[in-house]
Structures are given as structure tokens and as C-alpha cells.
Amino acid sequence: IGKIKIKHKTLGPVKQRQEEVTRILDTYKIKYELIDISVSLKILQEMRTKVSTPRALPPQIFNGQEYCGDFEMFHKAKENKEILKFLKME
């Protein structure tokens, strides 16, 4: 299993979504790494390439190099109590 990585942005309305993701991961005691896409255009472009969406917005969630999904998909997994499945941890 790889390390959970969250591509995020530190400012703006996206921050609330990022905070919800990290709060849920903390609740499940899942270790993660936050990667701020606002520090480098290269990181933003890499994220968008990996998710195959040229206008993808953070947060985008990965398990290692494997893409898990975006905030909406994460939120749906939370509602269905399928966080570990979403994160590809089971």
C-alpha cells in the first residue's frame, strides 16, 4: 500500500474541502501527505495529467501513485462508509 497523498491548495474555497478530507482521514487514523499545488505550476500540471482532467481542481486524492478520486467521490465514499475502499486500502 502506498502513502495517501492529497494534492491541495492552501487558499480559497477549496481549503474547506481539503479540511474535510483531512478531518476524515484523521478520524480513521490514516497517515497522509499534503502536497500544495499552488507552489509550483509543474505540480498542478502533474496532478491534472494524473487525473486525466485538464481543469481538475484540488483536492485530488492518491494512494501512492494510484489515483483514488476527487472531493465529490471522497464525500460519496464517506456517506456510504467506504472510505477504505475508496482509498484502495482494502
TrEMBL record:
Record InterPro entries: Glut_rich_SH3-bd, SH3BGR, Thioredoxin-like_sf
Signal peptide range: none
Entry GO terms, CC: cytoplasm
Domain of life: Eukaryota
Membrane-crossing residue ranges in chain numbering: none
PANTHER family: SH3 DOMAIN-BINDING GLUTAMIC ACID-RICH-LIKE PROTEIN (PTHR12232), SH3 DOMAIN-BINDING GLUTAMIC ACID-RICH-LIKE PROTEIN 3 (PTHR12232:SF6)
Protein family: Belongs to the SH3BGR family.
Protein name as catalogued: SH3 domain-binding glutamic acid-rich-like protein 3
Organism listed in the record: Panthera leo (Lion)
